[in-house]
Amino acid sequence: MKISKTSSTRIHTTDFTNLKFGTVFSDHMLICKYKDGEWGEAEIRPYGPIDMTPGSQVLHYGQSVFEGMKAFKNSDDEVLIFRKEENFKRINKSAERLYIPKITENIFMDGLDKLISLDSDWCKNEDGYSLYIRPFIFASGECIKASASEEYTFIIITSPTTRYYAGDLNVVVEQHYSRAAKGGVGFAKAAGNYAASFYPTKMANARGFTQVVWTDSIEHKYIEEAGTMNVWVRIDDTLITPELSDSILGGITRDSIVTLAKDKGIIVQERKLSIDDVVEAHRNGRLIEAFGTGTAVTVSPIDSITVGEEKIELNHKSDSFASLLKKSLQGIQNGTLEDKFGWTSKVNEVVNI
Ligand SMILES: Cc1ncc(COP(=O)(O)O)c(C=O)c1O
The pTM is what? Predict the structure, then answer.
């Protein structure tokens, strides 16, 4: 792998006390191109603009997939990447659906290790800090015929982040627009899924809501997910999250929370969850809490859920499942709790790069 280090780090001029999520980037990036049926040699170079022509297929047809993952520093100043094997599997699952060639394990894992090692100072060893990692693949062939590209570019960029203080989380159940359809690409982390969600989300924002809760595209009756989060409700002492389908992104945080909750003896149901179930549980006083899970937000308690004219207000209790599970998850991620499921991997310090 070719590695060109920056001659002028930006780390000393970066205000780590004031990081706006997703707007600050570390010094380096990894780039690798696919041409003539194979991936070429990966290269690490200073973060910066890339060559792209106006005829690049991704600009016209949105053939692009991405991932979102995080690295954390433990108290020994070692960098721990959380469940990178799962993100590797998921980017290739997404790629397959978008007819994008799969990235090889070696390019992904070795690239990740070297890149994070090189920029490890951007991952702060302080409470709440992490390094958000964004691998993505897009169609970079120059052709404006509506067709799958013959050339692709894989890039990994990283962005230092601190805790996601989103304020109150007031969600509204969307019963007109859809994020994903049966047989579509909802289970994939395809760029276009997000583009299609922005208009309904902005409309909901204008009405004072933080996020929309997507429902199934056929009946708008069953809850799917919200923003970049999987959704959970607690009815009595049972934790329920919608079962995965081809219109829901299988969150890695979701999977971790299922495992952690079961490990703590909590009853977890992955099943169809109708809006009626939630409203009825609330009316009967059985809806105890609701929260969202995702890489960016970790575990985020929901303050209210609006269904039509009805606003369901939820209280946050210190002994909620959300706070219990959040503590466990974060403890494993930053190495303060035992990693009994083998979810974290240490980044090897690469010498002489
Ligand atoms: C649509 C959607 N659902 C759910 C999630 C949560 O997934 P994960 O826990 O892997 O971050 C994300 C974020 O990646 C997302 O974009």
Answer: 0.97
